Amino acid sequence: QVQLQESGPDLVKPSQTLSLTCTISGGSITTSYYYWSWIRQPPGKGLEWIGYIGYSGITNYNPTFKSRTSISRDASKNQISLQLRSVTPEDTAVYYCAREASGDPYDYWGQGTQVTVAS
Asked: Which bin fits 78, alpha (ψ -120 to 50), beta or left (φ > 0)?
């Protein structure tokens, strides 16, 4: 059973960098052909895909976020990380990490972590 757990601060000040970590258990992040995504849901809105890092380390980003987003991984810790720079209150959301196999729907999700951007 694959489990994903997001962690990080629940409050970030405007203009700062939001940093989250997703720790995966029950499966390796380097196993072919899985992709590990960050997804968020702002209050009252739908899900927004931020980007992913793949089993090979390749990354892909939603153009909306690309200029201020970095997704990385630490294979030794089986973790992926998200950095979202220059945040504004509009970045307030529940942030999720999730796994998909190439071409298939997401099959495992973390429980999500609420991040609020406020001074």
From this structure: left
The pair of three-digit structure tokens given for residue 56, joined into one six-digit string: 């090979």
Which candidate, 40, 27, 41, places its Cα nearest to that of 99? Answer: 27
Q: Are 89 and 117 in contact (CB under 8 A)?
A: yes
- Assigned token pair, 117: 């951007």
Residues in the chain: 119
Per-residue model confidence as pLDDT tens digits over 15-60: 999 999 999 999 999 999 999 999 999 999 999 999 999 999 999 9
Question: What DSSP character marks residue 2?
Answer: -
Residues 6+ apart with CB under 8 A from 7: 20, 21, 22, 23, 113
